[in-house]
Amino acid sequence: MKIFIFILILLSLGVIVYNATILNFNDLLAKESSIALIGILGAAIVIVLLGILLTSKAIDKKHRNS
Question: What is the pLDDT of residues 26-45, one digit of tens each?
Answer without folding.
Answer: 888 888 899 999 999 999 99
